[in-house]
Specification:
This is Sialate O-acetylesterase. By secondary structure, the chain is of the alpha/beta class. It has helices at about 5-20, 115, 130-135, 165-170, 175-190, 210-215, 215-225, 240-245, 270-285, 305-320, 345-360, and strands at about 35, 40-45, 50-55, 60-65, 70-80, 85-90, 95-110, 140-145, 160-165, 190-195, 255-260, 290-295, 325, 370-375, 380-385, 390-395, 400-405, 410, 415-420, 420-425, 435, 445-450, 460.
Protein backbone atom coordinates (compact mmCIF):
# COMPACT_ATOMS: atom_id res chain seq x y z
CA UNK A 1 0.00 0.00 0.00
CA UNK A 2 1.33 3.41 -0.93
CA UNK A 3 2.09 5.89 1.93
CA UNK A 4 -0.47 8.38 0.61
CA UNK A 5 -3.19 5.72 0.57
CA UNK A 6 -2.35 4.67 4.12
CA UNK A 7 -2.51 8.29 5.28
CA UNK A 8 -5.92 8.72 3.65
CA UNK A 9 -7.29 5.63 5.43
CA UNK A 10 -6.00 6.90 8.80
CA UNK A 11 -7.61 10.31 8.23
CA UNK A 12 -10.94 8.73 7.27
CA UNK A 13 -10.95 6.44 10.32
CA UNK A 14 -10.11 9.39 12.59
CA UNK A 15 -12.98 11.42 11.12
CA UNK A 16 -15.40 8.55 11.61
CA UNK A 17 -14.39 8.19 15.25
CA UNK A 18 -14.77 11.96 15.78
CA UNK A 19 -18.23 11.96 14.24
CA UNK A 20 -19.26 9.03 16.40
CA UNK A 21 -18.75 11.00 19.61
CA UNK A 22 -21.67 12.84 21.16
CA UNK A 23 -21.37 16.61 20.93
CA UNK A 24 -23.64 19.32 22.31
CA UNK A 25 -24.36 22.92 21.35
CA UNK A 26 -22.48 25.41 23.52
CA UNK A 27 -25.70 26.56 25.20
CA UNK A 28 -25.57 23.28 27.14
CA UNK A 29 -22.76 23.24 29.67
CA UNK A 30 -21.74 23.24 33.31
CA UNK A 31 -23.45 25.97 35.41
CA UNK A 32 -26.34 26.30 32.96
CA UNK A 33 -29.93 27.16 33.88
CA UNK A 34 -32.87 25.27 32.36
CA UNK A 35 -36.36 26.75 32.27
CA UNK A 36 -38.47 25.42 35.13
CA UNK A 37 -41.80 23.58 34.82
CA UNK A 38 -41.22 22.82 31.18
CA UNK A 39 -40.70 20.08 28.67
CA UNK A 40 -37.23 21.35 27.81
CA UNK A 41 -35.44 20.19 24.71
CA UNK A 42 -31.89 18.89 24.89
CA UNK A 43 -30.21 18.13 21.59
CA UNK A 44 -26.88 17.48 19.96
CA UNK A 45 -25.04 15.49 17.34
CA UNK A 46 -23.93 11.86 17.21
CA UNK A 47 -23.25 9.03 14.80
CA UNK A 48 -26.30 8.09 12.72
CA UNK A 49 -28.17 5.23 14.38
CA UNK A 50 -26.40 5.61 17.72
CA UNK A 51 -28.54 4.94 20.78
CA UNK A 52 -28.20 7.46 23.58
CA UNK A 53 -29.45 7.69 27.16
CA UNK A 54 -30.08 11.05 28.84
CA UNK A 55 -30.41 10.91 32.63
CA UNK A 56 -31.63 13.84 34.77
CA UNK A 57 -30.55 13.74 38.40
CA UNK A 58 -33.51 15.69 39.79
CA UNK A 59 -35.84 12.78 39.14
CA UNK A 60 -33.50 9.96 38.10
CA UNK A 61 -35.45 9.59 34.88
CA UNK A 62 -33.77 8.06 31.82
CA UNK A 63 -34.68 9.19 28.31
CA UNK A 64 -33.76 6.94 25.39
CA UNK A 65 -33.17 8.28 21.88
CA UNK A 66 -31.74 6.92 18.64
CA UNK A 67 -29.88 9.33 16.38
CA UNK A 68 -31.70 9.65 13.03
CA UNK A 69 -30.18 9.95 9.56
CA UNK A 70 -29.69 13.71 10.08
CA UNK A 71 -27.18 12.93 12.89
CA UNK A 72 -29.07 15.39 15.10
CA UNK A 73 -30.77 13.84 18.14
CA UNK A 74 -33.14 15.46 20.61
CA UNK A 75 -35.03 14.60 23.76
CA UNK A 76 -37.52 16.54 25.86
CA UNK A 77 -36.93 16.40 29.61
CA UNK A 78 -39.45 17.42 32.27
CA UNK A 79 -38.01 20.08 34.55
CA UNK A 80 -39.20 20.62 38.14
CA UNK A 81 -40.38 23.80 39.86
CA UNK A 82 -36.90 25.23 40.62
CA UNK A 83 -33.71 24.33 42.38
CA UNK A 84 -30.39 22.61 42.04
CA UNK A 85 -27.60 22.03 41.59
CA UNK A 86 -28.33 18.97 39.47
CA UNK A 87 -26.50 17.11 36.76
CA UNK A 88 -27.48 15.74 33.37
CA UNK A 89 -25.71 12.73 31.87
CA UNK A 90 -25.71 11.89 28.16
CA UNK A 91 -24.34 8.42 27.42
CA UNK A 92 -23.54 7.00 24.02
CA UNK A 93 -21.45 4.26 22.50
CA UNK A 94 -18.26 6.29 22.16
CA UNK A 95 -18.42 8.75 25.04
CA UNK A 96 -20.33 10.17 27.96
CA UNK A 97 -21.01 13.83 28.75
CA UNK A 98 -21.94 15.00 32.25
CA UNK A 99 -23.32 18.52 32.71
CA UNK A 100 -22.59 19.58 36.29
CA UNK A 101 -24.00 22.29 38.54
CA UNK A 102 -27.20 22.65 36.52
CA UNK A 103 -29.89 24.88 38.01
CA UNK A 104 -33.60 24.95 37.23
CA UNK A 105 -35.20 28.39 37.18
CA UNK A 106 -36.11 31.25 34.85
CA UNK A 107 -34.13 31.94 31.66
CA UNK A 108 -34.21 35.35 29.96
CA UNK A 109 -32.70 36.40 26.65
CA UNK A 110 -31.12 39.87 26.80
CA UNK A 111 -30.65 41.51 23.42
CA UNK A 112 -30.25 44.80 21.56
CA UNK A 113 -27.41 47.25 21.08
CA UNK A 114 -24.83 48.98 23.25
CA UNK A 115 -27.02 50.00 26.20
CA UNK A 116 -27.87 46.32 26.71
CA UNK A 117 -24.29 45.23 26.05
CA UNK A 118 -22.89 47.87 28.45
CA UNK A 119 -21.03 46.47 31.46
CA UNK A 120 -20.01 47.92 34.80
CA UNK A 121 -16.55 48.59 33.38
CA UNK A 122 -17.27 49.58 29.76
CA UNK A 123 -15.64 52.96 29.14
CA UNK A 124 -16.95 55.24 31.92
CA UNK A 125 -18.89 52.31 33.37
CA UNK A 126 -22.07 52.63 35.41
CA UNK A 127 -23.14 54.55 38.49
CA UNK A 128 -21.51 53.30 41.69
CA UNK A 129 -19.65 50.66 39.69
CA UNK A 130 -17.04 49.74 42.29
CA UNK A 131 -19.59 49.05 45.01
CA UNK A 132 -21.93 47.19 42.65
CA UNK A 133 -19.13 44.90 41.50
CA UNK A 134 -18.06 44.13 45.08
CA UNK A 135 -21.50 42.93 46.13
CA UNK A 136 -22.28 40.93 42.96
CA UNK A 137 -22.07 37.56 44.71
CA UNK A 138 -25.17 35.73 43.51
CA UNK A 139 -24.35 32.09 42.72
CA UNK A 140 -27.96 31.40 41.71
CA UNK A 141 -27.67 33.91 38.85
CA UNK A 142 -25.88 32.51 35.83
CA UNK A 143 -24.52 34.28 32.72
CA UNK A 144 -24.12 33.12 29.14
CA UNK A 145 -22.55 35.67 26.79
CA UNK A 146 -22.91 34.95 23.09
CA UNK A 147 -19.70 35.96 21.38
CA UNK A 148 -20.01 38.16 18.33
CA UNK A 149 -20.78 36.27 15.18
CA UNK A 150 -22.41 37.11 11.84
CA UNK A 151 -23.70 34.63 9.31
CA UNK A 152 -25.34 34.68 5.91
CA UNK A 153 -27.50 31.70 6.86
CA UNK A 154 -28.99 30.52 10.19
CA UNK A 155 -26.40 28.67 12.30
CA UNK A 156 -26.87 25.53 14.39
CA UNK A 157 -24.47 26.58 17.15
CA UNK A 158 -22.89 29.71 18.59
CA UNK A 159 -19.88 30.44 20.79
CA UNK A 160 -20.24 31.02 24.52
CA UNK A 161 -20.03 29.45 27.99
CA UNK A 162 -22.07 29.62 31.19
CA UNK A 163 -20.59 31.41 34.21
CA UNK A 164 -21.65 31.80 37.83
CA UNK A 165 -22.42 35.37 38.89
CA UNK A 166 -19.57 36.75 40.98
CA UNK A 167 -17.78 40.10 41.21
CA UNK A 168 -15.32 38.80 38.64
CA UNK A 169 -17.94 37.72 36.09
CA UNK A 170 -20.54 40.44 36.73
CA UNK A 171 -18.18 43.26 35.78
CA UNK A 172 -17.96 42.00 32.21
CA UNK A 173 -21.64 41.13 31.74
CA UNK A 174 -24.60 43.27 30.69
CA UNK A 175 -25.31 45.63 33.59
CA UNK A 176 -28.99 46.10 32.68
CA UNK A 177 -29.48 42.34 32.52
CA UNK A 178 -27.67 41.79 35.84
CA UNK A 179 -29.81 44.35 37.70
CA UNK A 180 -32.91 42.82 36.09
CA UNK A 181 -31.94 39.36 37.35
CA UNK A 182 -30.89 40.57 40.79
CA UNK A 183 -34.31 42.10 41.39
CA UNK A 184 -36.25 39.03 40.20
CA UNK A 185 -33.99 36.57 42.03
CA UNK A 186 -34.30 38.58 45.22
CA UNK A 187 -38.08 38.71 44.99
CA UNK A 188 -38.74 35.12 43.90
CA UNK A 189 -35.72 33.30 45.36
CA UNK A 190 -35.23 31.09 42.31
CA UNK A 191 -32.26 30.64 39.96
CA UNK A 192 -32.07 33.06 37.03
CA UNK A 193 -30.23 32.35 33.77
CA UNK A 194 -29.32 35.25 31.47
CA UNK A 195 -28.31 34.79 27.84
CA UNK A 196 -26.83 38.02 26.49
CA UNK A 197 -26.38 38.43 22.74
CA UNK A 198 -26.39 42.23 22.38
CA UNK A 199 -24.14 43.99 19.85
CA UNK A 200 -23.37 47.70 20.21
CA UNK A 201 -24.53 49.94 17.38
CA UNK A 202 -26.65 47.25 15.76
CA UNK A 203 -29.76 48.32 13.82
CA UNK A 204 -32.98 46.36 14.27
CA UNK A 205 -32.77 45.06 10.70
CA UNK A 206 -29.87 42.71 11.49
CA UNK A 207 -31.91 41.00 14.22
CA UNK A 208 -34.96 40.13 12.08
CA UNK A 209 -35.35 36.82 10.29
CA UNK A 210 -35.05 36.82 6.50
CA UNK A 211 -38.77 36.09 6.23
CA UNK A 212 -39.55 39.57 7.61
CA UNK A 213 -38.05 41.12 4.49
CA UNK A 214 -39.34 38.48 2.11
CA UNK A 215 -42.89 39.24 3.29
CA UNK A 216 -42.63 43.06 3.54
CA UNK A 217 -41.28 44.83 0.48
CA UNK A 218 -41.18 48.24 2.21
CA UNK A 219 -39.00 46.90 5.02
CA UNK A 220 -36.80 45.07 2.53
CA UNK A 221 -36.15 48.21 0.50
CA UNK A 222 -35.03 50.16 3.57
CA UNK A 223 -33.03 47.29 5.05
CA UNK A 224 -30.94 46.63 1.97
CA UNK A 225 -30.08 50.30 1.57
CA UNK A 226 -28.23 50.59 4.88
CA UNK A 227 -24.69 51.91 4.69
CA UNK A 228 -21.78 50.13 6.35
CA UNK A 229 -20.67 51.37 9.76
CA UNK A 230 -17.45 50.79 11.75
CA UNK A 231 -19.26 49.48 14.84
CA UNK A 232 -21.84 46.95 13.66
CA UNK A 233 -22.76 44.85 10.62
CA UNK A 234 -25.80 46.18 8.77
CA UNK A 235 -26.66 43.28 6.46
CA UNK A 236 -30.26 42.25 7.22
CA UNK A 237 -30.65 39.10 9.36
CA UNK A 238 -26.89 38.62 9.87
CA UNK A 239 -27.08 38.80 13.67
CA UNK A 240 -30.23 36.73 13.86
CA UNK A 241 -28.49 34.07 11.81
CA UNK A 242 -25.27 34.17 13.82
CA UNK A 243 -26.42 35.00 17.35
CA UNK A 244 -30.10 34.07 17.76
CA UNK A 245 -31.17 31.15 15.58
CA UNK A 246 -29.08 28.53 17.39
CA UNK A 247 -30.91 29.43 20.64
CA UNK A 248 -34.44 28.91 19.36
CA UNK A 249 -34.66 25.34 20.64
CA UNK A 250 -33.68 26.48 24.13
CA UNK A 251 -36.65 27.27 26.36
CA UNK A 252 -36.75 30.84 27.67
CA UNK A 253 -39.12 32.69 29.96
CA UNK A 254 -38.93 35.84 27.86
CA UNK A 255 -36.77 38.56 26.33
CA UNK A 256 -35.59 41.98 27.47
CA UNK A 257 -34.52 44.36 24.71
CA UNK A 258 -32.74 47.74 24.61
CA UNK A 259 -32.31 49.00 21.06
CA UNK A 260 -33.43 51.81 18.78
CA UNK A 261 -30.69 54.42 18.76
CA UNK A 262 -29.36 53.06 15.47
CA UNK A 263 -32.82 53.35 13.87
CA UNK A 264 -33.66 56.98 14.62
CA UNK A 265 -33.06 58.01 10.99
CA UNK A 266 -35.59 55.35 9.91
CA UNK A 267 -38.18 56.01 12.60
CA UNK A 268 -41.04 55.93 10.10
CA UNK A 269 -40.96 52.14 9.72
CA UNK A 270 -39.70 51.22 13.18
CA UNK A 271 -43.04 50.21 14.69
CA UNK A 272 -43.65 47.77 11.86
CA UNK A 273 -40.04 46.53 11.72
CA UNK A 274 -39.85 46.01 15.46
CA UNK A 275 -43.22 44.26 15.73
CA UNK A 276 -42.38 41.98 12.78
CA UNK A 277 -39.00 41.17 14.34
CA UNK A 278 -40.59 40.22 17.65
CA UNK A 279 -43.11 38.11 15.77
CA UNK A 280 -40.38 36.36 13.80
CA UNK A 281 -38.53 35.42 17.01
CA UNK A 282 -41.69 34.06 18.60
CA UNK A 283 -42.42 32.04 15.49
CA UNK A 284 -38.90 30.58 15.59
CA UNK A 285 -39.29 29.59 19.27
CA UNK A 286 -42.82 28.38 18.72
CA UNK A 287 -44.57 30.34 21.47
CA UNK A 288 -45.47 33.91 22.44
CA UNK A 289 -42.99 34.64 25.22
CA UNK A 290 -43.05 38.03 27.02
CA UNK A 291 -41.05 40.78 25.32
CA UNK A 292 -40.12 43.78 27.48
CA UNK A 293 -38.14 46.67 26.09
CA UNK A 294 -36.63 50.06 26.92
CA UNK A 295 -37.66 53.26 25.20
CA UNK A 296 -34.51 55.08 24.11
CA UNK A 297 -33.35 57.94 26.33
CA UNK A 298 -33.08 61.58 25.25
CA UNK A 299 -29.85 62.30 23.40
CA UNK A 300 -28.39 65.06 21.26
CA UNK A 301 -28.80 63.52 17.78
CA UNK A 302 -27.59 65.46 14.76
CA UNK A 303 -31.02 65.60 13.09
CA UNK A 304 -33.82 67.41 14.97
CA UNK A 305 -36.71 65.40 16.43
CA UNK A 306 -35.60 61.96 15.17
CA UNK A 307 -35.23 60.71 18.74
CA UNK A 308 -38.75 61.86 19.62
CA UNK A 309 -40.19 60.14 16.57
CA UNK A 310 -38.41 56.89 17.46
CA UNK A 311 -39.65 57.04 21.05
CA UNK A 312 -43.17 57.54 19.75
CA UNK A 313 -42.76 54.55 17.42
CA UNK A 314 -41.74 52.47 20.43
CA UNK A 315 -44.74 53.75 22.39
CA UNK A 316 -47.05 52.59 19.60
CA UNK A 317 -45.19 49.28 19.28
CA UNK A 318 -45.92 48.25 22.86
CA UNK A 319 -49.63 48.70 22.05
CA UNK A 320 -49.56 46.53 18.94
CA UNK A 321 -47.16 43.78 20.09
CA UNK A 322 -49.05 41.25 22.24
CA UNK A 323 -47.57 40.30 25.62
CA UNK A 324 -45.08 43.17 25.55
CA UNK A 325 -44.22 46.13 27.75
CA UNK A 326 -42.08 49.26 27.60
CA UNK A 327 -40.18 51.16 30.27
CA UNK A 328 -39.50 54.88 29.92
CA UNK A 329 -36.12 56.24 31.01
CA UNK A 330 -36.31 59.94 30.07
CA UNK A 331 -35.57 60.84 33.70
CA UNK A 332 -32.17 59.12 33.73
CA UNK A 333 -30.85 60.52 30.44
CA UNK A 334 -27.43 62.00 29.85
CA UNK A 335 -28.19 64.00 26.71
CA UNK A 336 -24.51 64.39 25.78
CA UNK A 337 -23.86 60.67 26.18
CA UNK A 338 -25.99 58.06 24.45
CA UNK A 339 -25.13 55.61 27.27
CA UNK A 340 -26.74 56.73 30.56
CA UNK A 341 -24.69 55.29 33.46
CA UNK A 342 -27.78 54.62 35.58
CA UNK A 343 -28.36 51.04 34.53
CA UNK A 344 -29.77 50.14 37.95
CA UNK A 345 -33.14 51.83 37.39
CA UNK A 346 -33.40 50.43 33.86
CA UNK A 347 -32.94 46.87 35.11
CA UNK A 348 -35.28 47.54 38.05
CA UNK A 349 -38.09 48.83 35.82
CA UNK A 350 -37.76 45.89 33.43
CA UNK A 351 -37.78 43.49 36.37
CA UNK A 352 -40.88 45.09 37.87
CA UNK A 353 -42.62 44.68 34.52
CA UNK A 354 -41.78 40.98 34.53
CA UNK A 355 -42.69 40.56 38.19
CA UNK A 356 -46.13 42.06 37.61
CA UNK A 357 -47.05 40.91 34.12
CA UNK A 358 -45.29 37.53 33.89
CA UNK A 359 -45.00 36.35 37.47
CA UNK A 360 -47.89 38.19 39.19
CA UNK A 361 -45.57 38.91 42.12
CA UNK A 362 -45.69 42.73 42.18
CA UNK A 363 -48.65 44.91 43.10
CA UNK A 364 -47.27 48.35 42.22
CA UNK A 365 -47.49 50.43 39.06
CA UNK A 366 -44.91 49.47 36.43
CA UNK A 367 -45.75 51.95 33.65
CA UNK A 368 -45.38 55.68 33.40
CA UNK A 369 -48.31 57.73 32.04
CA UNK A 370 -49.12 56.73 28.45
CA UNK A 371 -51.14 58.91 26.08
CA UNK A 372 -54.66 57.55 25.62
CA UNK A 373 -56.70 60.27 23.90
CA UNK A 374 -57.43 63.98 23.81
CA UNK A 375 -60.57 66.09 23.54
CA UNK A 376 -60.77 69.65 22.23
CA UNK A 377 -63.09 71.98 24.14
CA UNK A 378 -62.91 75.42 22.55
CA UNK A 379 -59.47 76.81 23.25
CA UNK A 380 -58.69 74.03 25.70
CA UNK A 381 -57.42 70.51 25.11
CA UNK A 382 -57.99 67.76 27.66
CA UNK A 383 -55.42 64.96 27.48
CA UNK A 384 -56.18 61.55 28.95
CA UNK A 385 -53.56 59.00 29.99
CA UNK A 386 -53.39 55.39 31.01
CA UNK A 387 -51.41 54.66 34.20
CA UNK A 388 -52.11 58.20 35.40
CA UNK A 389 -52.93 57.76 39.09
CA UNK A 390 -51.40 60.61 41.05
CA UNK A 391 -50.20 62.68 38.12
CA UNK A 392 -47.59 65.18 39.30
CA UNK A 393 -44.92 67.53 38.05
CA UNK A 394 -41.42 67.45 39.45
CA UNK A 395 -41.11 71.22 39.37
CA UNK A 396 -43.30 74.31 39.59
CA UNK A 397 -44.80 73.95 36.11
CA UNK A 398 -45.36 71.07 33.71
CA UNK A 399 -42.99 71.18 30.76
CA UNK A 400 -42.80 70.00 27.14
CA UNK A 401 -46.46 70.13 26.07
CA UNK A 402 -47.26 71.77 22.72
CA UNK A 403 -50.41 72.52 20.73
CA UNK A 404 -51.03 73.07 17.03
CA UNK A 405 -53.97 74.32 15.00
CA UNK A 406 -54.90 73.13 11.55
CA UNK A 407 -51.86 74.90 10.05
CA UNK A 408 -49.57 72.42 11.80
CA UNK A 409 -47.46 75.07 13.57
CA UNK A 410 -46.53 74.05 17.09
CA UNK A 411 -46.47 76.35 20.12
CA UNK A 412 -45.67 75.74 23.81
CA UNK A 413 -48.76 75.05 25.91
CA UNK A 414 -49.60 75.83 29.49
CA UNK A 415 -50.47 72.63 31.32
CA UNK A 416 -52.51 72.00 34.45
CA UNK A 417 -53.24 68.73 36.21
CA UNK A 418 -56.89 67.86 36.80
CA UNK A 419 -57.24 64.46 38.45
CA UNK A 420 -55.76 61.99 35.96
CA UNK A 421 -55.89 64.44 33.04
CA UNK A 422 -53.91 67.36 31.70
CA UNK A 423 -55.64 70.58 30.58
CA UNK A 424 -53.72 72.50 27.92
CA UNK A 425 -54.05 76.04 26.59
CA UNK A 426 -51.91 78.34 24.45
CA UNK A 427 -52.45 82.02 23.70
CA UNK A 428 -51.00 81.41 20.23
CA UNK A 429 -53.40 78.58 19.35
CA UNK A 430 -57.01 79.72 19.30
CA UNK A 431 -58.37 76.56 17.67
CA UNK A 432 -56.18 73.65 18.78
CA UNK A 433 -56.32 70.38 16.87
CA UNK A 434 -53.21 68.40 17.78
CA UNK A 435 -51.07 67.89 20.87
CA UNK A 436 -47.60 66.55 21.45
CA UNK A 437 -45.34 66.02 24.43
CA UNK A 438 -41.59 65.66 24.94
CA UNK A 439 -41.05 66.39 21.27
CA UNK A 440 -37.34 66.97 20.87
CA UNK A 441 -34.26 64.80 20.85
CA UNK A 442 -33.18 66.07 24.26
CA UNK A 443 -36.54 66.54 25.99
CA UNK A 444 -36.49 65.56 29.66
CA UNK A 445 -40.12 66.17 30.69
CA UNK A 446 -41.15 66.44 34.33
CA UNK A 447 -44.56 64.72 34.26
CA UNK A 448 -44.76 61.59 36.44
CA UNK A 449 -47.35 59.41 38.14
CA UNK A 450 -47.46 58.66 41.85
CA UNK A 451 -45.16 55.65 41.31
CA UNK A 452 -42.44 58.08 40.25
CA UNK A 453 -42.43 56.83 36.65
CA UNK A 454 -42.07 59.35 33.79
CA UNK A 455 -44.62 59.94 31.03
CA UNK A 456 -43.73 58.81 27.51
CA UNK A 457 -43.26 61.24 24.65
CA UNK A 458 -46.13 61.20 22.14
CA UNK A 459 -47.75 63.01 19.23
CA UNK A 460 -51.49 62.79 18.74
CA UNK A 461 -51.52 62.23 15.00
Amino acid sequence: MKPNQLLLIIVLLTCQLAVAKITLPNIFGDHMVLQRNESAKIWGWAQTGEELTVTTSWDGKKYKVKTPITAVWEVFVNTPEAGGPFNITIEGFENEIVLNDVLIGEVWLCSGQSNMQWTATTNAGIDNAEEEIKKADYPNIRFFTVERRTAEFPQDDLPGTWEVCSPETMKDFSAVAYFFARRIQGEMNIPIGLVNNAWGGSPAEVWATRSVFEENEDLKKDAYSLKETPWSPVTPSYLYNGMVHALTGFKIAGTIWYQGESNVSRHGNYTKLFSKTVGSWRKAWGYEFPFYFVQIAPYKYDTPEVGAYLRNSQRIAQKVIPNSGMVVVSDIATINDIHPPNKQDVGLRLANLALKETYKKYEGEVHGPLYKSHKVDGKKVEVHFDHADGLMAKGKTITHFELAAGDGKWYPAKAKIKDDRIILTSKKVAEPVKVRFGWSNTAEPNLFNEAGLPASAFISE
